[in-house]
Amino acid sequence: MAESKPTLGYWKIRGLAQPIRFLLTYLDVDVNEKRYGTFEEWQADKLNLGLAFPNVPYLIDGDLKLTESRAILRHFARDTALNPNTADATRTCDMLENVLWDIWFGLLRYCNSGVDPMKSYFENEIPKKIGYLNTFMENKKFILGDQISYVDFILYEILYHYTTYSAEYLDKYSVLSQYKKSFEAIPAIAKYISSEDYIKGPCINPMAKIPF
Ligand SMILES: N[C@@H](CCC(=O)N[C@@H](CS)C(=O)NCC(=O)O)C(=O)O
């Protein structure tokens, strides 16, 4: 019998899949998760799943085979209230998605390498970007104001990554600290966080130079 639920494949870590996991929970979409524990396990599947661009995370839903974390996130958000519904809101989401990716990868690249130029970018440039973000989020419940969008799921995960890297990291950014708490209090998110299925960590590949 054909598999009826979609399959989301990724490592047994939070990583790039975590915003997707939160968004699926929020939308109450049921998927099977294939969580790879070893490199060998993933290598055995990698070229045998019919993926045009073999990678994790991947989504397989019948004939639909999709990779790229943001493409998967947008796929699930499309036609839901998490998708921006005006041209202005779409532009804001596009801008924030890109800004957030720089902020996220500033941390990921530094922790994966532990050395310059990633280290100096992380130390010198990232605080400025997080400062701009903190200012941008002032007096907003979500990135678009009162309306939650798919980009909020990326923002939350980045804040989780930064505070797992260093518990005090957000202390200077009170708006972002408050945003993180409010997101965790959304009923569907709070329920997921306390469920057995939820991955508290690690956030990144345990083989990284600075794992967390
Ligand atoms: N641009 C891709 C990057 C995906 C990626 O870098 N995946 C990493 C984990 S975060 C991986 O281990 N890929 C497995 C591989 O390259 O075989 C995305 O956003 O999904």
Automatic annotation (TrEMBL):
Gene3D superfamilies: 1.20.1050.130. This is glutathione transferase. Conjugation of reduced glutathione to a wide number of exogenous and endogenous hydrophobic electrophiles. Belongs to the GST superfamily. Mu family. Its EC number is 2.5.1.18. Keywords: Transferase. The keyword Transcription does not apply. InterPro entries: Glutathione-S-Trfase_C-like, Glutathione-S-Trfase_C_sf, Glutathione_S-Trfase, Glutathione_S-Trfase_N, GST_C, GST_superfamily, Thioredoxin-like_sf. It catalyses: RX + glutathione = an S-substituted glutathione + a halide anion + H(+). Coiled coil: none annotated. Residues 4-84 form the GST N-terminal domain. Residues 86-210 form the GST C-terminal domain.
